[in-house]
Amino acid sequence: MRVVLIGEAATHRDELPGHEIVALPAEAAYDDRFDAELQDADVVVSLRFSREAAPEFPLLHVPGAGLDGIKMAGLAPGTTVCNVFEHEAPIAEYVLAAMLEWEIRFSSLRASFSAESWSDVYRHRIPHGEILGKTLGLVGYGRIGRAIADRASAFGMQVVAVDDYASPHAQVAPWPTSQLPELLDRADFVVVTCPLTDDTRGMLDAAAFARMKSTAVVINAARAPILDEAALYDALRTNTIGGAVLDVWYSYPTGSDDRVAPSTFDFAGLPNAWCTPHSSAWTHELPRRRYAVIADNIDRLESGQSLRNVVRDGATGHHLTQKTKKVS
Fold this sequence. Notes:
alpha/beta, Rossmann fold, 6-stranded parallel beta sheet, 2 domains
């Protein structure tokens, strides 16, 4: 099988032994000058792919779960699209670590300790918080939301969730998204885990932040535009909410060498915004798990078996997408 790996995917060529591998730069996801290399491909692996009219190849495999970087309308009719997950556990660990650090401030406790000042620091030590008994609100209750709920419940947190399509899990029965205002009223931590769609874009806006507790923290490890960019910055700047942990951003580099700002606002300059570089799932172990799924799908394609995680069937034209209703 001829497998074309675009951008970051090319660094995982060793995970796909036994195939002819062609590595292309990130620009190939956008630039039709690379069409000659794509025309004879059996499989293209790329996190993003945006063309007005792409050449036809049997399978586009996204090495992640999100599909907002794929322009489905520009794909050839016969191209099947599959995605892959395997990121639930590390994102859940990231979210739990963020909540624990927000309450305990472990890094500050370490910084406050020294052998020389130990006696005085001990006598005047400052109490820290705990997540026991806090309310966690999940906006979206899919794979990631459920993984977070499992871990948060084990820490004694109260978990509520909104999702119009998810089933009950871990003693959490998700509410419809029409009850998002009630979730925002109650939550100490609001964690965004829903996909970015036309309906969820800007779902958390100025009105939503105004409903939240003044001490509440929003954690976004999904997609940045689900949170209205200007409204979020203003809510943090004015201390309308307590803070934010932001791992996803409003602008990303598309080429190999371009430089872009993550936002039009200086979130990193705010003391109550903790910013990380889209790394919540980015563990040493993640690529091995993801590319094992991709390798299996390539073998299935070659042998004519049904593929896993099909989101667009090239044979039938059926396009499966997850939707979440926008809350007014």
